[in-house]
Design brief:
It contains one helix and ten strands. The protein is mostly beta strands. It has a single domain, classed as Beta Complex (Metal Binding Protein, Guanine Nucleotide Exchange Factor, Chain A), CATH 2.170.150. The strands form two sheets. A seven-stranded mixed sheet has the order 6-7-8-9-4-3-10, covered by helices on one side. A three-stranded antiparallel sheet has the order 1-2-5, with no helix packed on it. Bound molecules: zinc ion (2 copies). One zinc ion binds next to α1.
Length: about 140
């Protein structure tokens, strides 16, 4: 597999490390209130992978269920948010782009939950914008 298709990442303290194989299945801005509260930032970018592409060579993240079926893994030492899973999107995990070592390589391709975007947050692009989810749930 070409080297550029192996990605690594870590939490702020480094206790949780990521090894990601292959290309992501999606890269999406998420403007939802839950991501805002979880991360403390005005918007997040979620990088989606199949669970089979993901390994944790050091510690596994802890888990926090933020609403039924929604899990938000985090580092138990430093509190960094790692990402997000949705039981309706089984077998996938979505990482916050900031935990990856080269976030500049993960340019988003759309905006999800645009209806919840902060009115003062203006991102000047021509990407598709979805008022709700960008990927339909079962
Ligand atoms: Zn940590
Ligand atoms: Zn969100």
């Amino acid at each position: 597999m070409p080297e550029q298709h192996q990605h690594i990442g870590r939490c702020l303290c480094g206790a949780v490390e990521l090894r990601l194989s292959g290309l992501p299945i999606s890269i999406t801005y998420c403007h939802c209130e839950s991501c805002r509260r979880a991360t403390g930032g005005p918007v997040t970018v979620l990088v989606g992978y199949e669970l089979a592409q993901v390994a944790y060579p050091a510690e596994e993240p802890r888990h926090f269920q933020s609403s039924p079926g929604i899990d938000r893994p985090f580092c138990r030492h430093c509190g960094s948010r790692i990402g997000y899973t949705d039981a309706r999107l089984a077998g996938r995990i979505y990482f916050h782009v900031g935990v990856l070592d080269h976030p500049e390589r993960f340019a988003p391709t759309c905006h999800a939950l645009e209806a919840e975007r902060l009115s003062w947050l203006h991102i000047d692009d021509t990407l598709p914008r979805f008022d709700g989810f960008s990927v339909s749930r079962d």
